[in-house]
């Protein structure tokens, strides 16, 4: 393996290109869309929304798409301006300051263990539903270990793998949507915008505003992941504006796919009451319209898509951890190890293995619900940071040449911040306390270790000139 190189160029310290710049924008978008996981999101998060918001799930996800679009244009503008593997922390540090950037990194590190573990556990649950003899936790551990082993391969190979599995994922969406729309009751299409919740006995009632907003939070989580295109920017060929296209393209495909599946479920289900009160609403839809055999096929294909999400997330967070080592964020031995790449595959092997081991450890002792609950507010805070950065960037750095500019600035970041504020109000006091404690620990490390060493640590290396 080679040691992390640190080159100096006029105007600041710049990194040498170590990661293999071998994928095109389409490959970047495929991995990013795999991080979002449209089918996995519909069957997991969409099912929760159908249970909690009833027919209001469609409207909630539609509003979530609006907020997510406002966040995505911020990601697109700033990611094209600051294309580094650090992603969020690299952007926030350069716009809001070094301390804010380190707190963003802390939030990313919290998520890097939780997110792959949560998706692996979800896959284990679906596999256990098909074969009850299989332990969901054991299946999750095997799936996660396999994804970690694959993640150390070259980025071009992994882009091909994620693209193939993504095709399977979108096929699931198309099959489910075709089933629902083929049996749709078009005379009741207005129910999509007239949300109601249902009881098991078939009784219905209008949905309350707070419950609808809770569905918006779920929808934002179902679309989350489009910012990953920035993290893979150092491995993407072409002009920087291609990163903006990858961000917006991935979100666009995810929104269309997930809204189509939810609309098809609500219009085509034999009973909306049974759909929204079923333990697994989307599985109920497939079983009622296609039979038990199709449910088994779809479930097994869904496990493969969960594997794809886990693989893509491991690829994503390994690069964040690698970037933090290259930026000298930790004591020298740790930074050197994390900042190394394999000389043949040109991938951050050490960072990948660290994330894989961490996720395996959490998977062995945690459960899906706990992982998701712990991660929810953390994701919301990262949304706030990117929206605030998108708002502030043009004010504090007006002279920068931007490869891609969001339309209607400052409206999108303002809408995004309003949406984020609503989600924070809906969080529990326990979640708020946990995230506050994590940020406090980050501030302590920054003050005690990084600030006294600001000339040699937390150096925030920039891309090479002309890159």
Describe the structure.
- The two termini are 24 Å apart.
- This protein has 467 residues and is mainly alpha-helical.
- The chain has 18 helices and four strands.
- A hairpin with a 5-residue loop joins β3 (196-198) and β4.
- Mean pLDDT is 89; it is low at 1-11.
Q: Any key phrases for this structure?
A:
18 helices, globular, disordered N terminus, 467 residues, mainly alpha, two-stranded antiparallel sheet, two-stranded antiparallel ribbon
SSE topology:
Elements: E1 6-9, E2 12-15, H1 25-36, H2 38-53, H3 56-81, H4 88-96, H5 98-130, H6 136-151, H7 155-182, E3 196-198, E4 204-206, H8 209-223, H9 228-231, H10 241-268, H11 272-277, H12 281-290, H13 292-326, H14 332-338, H15 349-365, H16 368-396, H17 411-425, H18 429-450
Antiparallel strand pairs: 1-2, 3-4
Helix pairs in contact: 1-7, 1-10, 1-13, 2-3, 2-8, 2-10, 3-8, 3-10, 3-16, 3-17, 4-5, 4-16, 5-6, 5-13, 5-15, 5-16, 5-18, 6-13, 6-15, 7-10, 7-13, 12-13, 13-14, 13-15, 16-17, 16-18
Distance between the termini: 24 Å
Largest sheet data:
2 strands, antiparallel
Looking at the structure, what is the overall shape? globular
Mean pLDDT score = 89
| Helix/strand structural class | mainly alpha
Amount of beta strand: under 5%
Radius of gyration: 22 Å
Number of alpha- plus pi-helical segments: 18
Give the uncertain stretches in residue-range form. Answer: 1-11
- Report the strand count: 4
What pattern of helices and strands is seen along the backbone?
EEHHHHHHHEEHHHHHHHHHHH
Helix content: over 70%
Side-by-side strand order of the widest sheet: 1-2
């Amino acid at each position: 393996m080679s040691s992390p190189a640190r080159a100096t160029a006029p105007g600041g310290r710049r990194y040498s290109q170590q990661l293999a710049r071998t994928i095109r924008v389409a490959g970047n978008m495929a991995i990013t869309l795999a991080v979002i996981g449209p089918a996995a999101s519909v069957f997991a998060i969409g099912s929760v929304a159908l249970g909690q918001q009833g027919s209001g799930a469609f409207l909630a996800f539609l509003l979530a798409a609006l907020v997510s679009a406002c966040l995505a244009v911020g990601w697109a503008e700033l990611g094209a301006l600051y294309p580094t593997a650090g992603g969020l922390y690299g952007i926030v540090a350069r716009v809001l300051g070094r301390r804010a950037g380190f707190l963003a990194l802390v939030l990313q590190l919290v998520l890097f263990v939780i997110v792959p573990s949560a998706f692996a556990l979800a896959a284990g649950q679906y596999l256990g539903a098909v074969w009850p003899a299989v332990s969901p936790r054991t299946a999750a551990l095997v799936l996660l270990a396999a994804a970690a082993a694959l993640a150390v391969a070259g980025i071009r190979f992994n882009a091909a793998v994620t693209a193939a599995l993504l095709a399977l994922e979108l096929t699931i969406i198309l099959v489910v949507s075709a089933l629902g729309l083929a049996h749709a009751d078009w005379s009741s299409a207005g129910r999509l915008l007239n949300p109601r919740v249902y009881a098991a006995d078939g009784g219905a009632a209008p949905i309350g505003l707070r419950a609808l907003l809770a569905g918006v939070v779920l929808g934002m989580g179902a679309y989350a992941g489009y910012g990953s295109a920035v993290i893979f920017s150092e491995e993407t060929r072409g002009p920087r504006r291609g990163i903006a296209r990858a961000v917006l393209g991935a979100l666009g495909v995810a929104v269309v796919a997930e809204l189509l599946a939810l609309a098809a479920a609500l219009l085509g289900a034999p009973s909306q009451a049974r759909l929204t009160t079923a333990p697994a609403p989307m599985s109920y839809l497939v079983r009622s319209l296609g039979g038990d055999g199709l449910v088994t096929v779809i479930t097994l294909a869904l496990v493969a898509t969960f594997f794809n999400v886990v693989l893509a997330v491991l690829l994503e967070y390994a690069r964040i951890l690698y970037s933090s080592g290259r930026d000298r964020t930790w004591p020298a031995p740790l930074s050197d190890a994390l900042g190394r790449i394999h000389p043949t595959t040109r991938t951050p092997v050490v960072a990948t293995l660290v994330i894989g081991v961490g996720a395996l450890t959490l998977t062995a002792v945690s459960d899906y619900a706990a992982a998701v609950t712990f991660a929810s507010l953390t994701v919301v805070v990262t949304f706030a940071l990117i929206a605030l950065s998108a708002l502030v960037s043009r004010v504090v750095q007006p002279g920068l040449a931007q490869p891609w500019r969001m339309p209607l600035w400052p409206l999108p970041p303002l809408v995004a911040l309003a949406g984020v504020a609503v989600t924070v109000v809906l969080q529990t006091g326990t979640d708020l306390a946990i995230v506050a404690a994590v940020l406090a620990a980050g501030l302590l490390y920054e003050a005690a270790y990084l600030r006294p060493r600001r000339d040699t640590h937390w150096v925030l290396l920039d891309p090479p000139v002309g890159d």
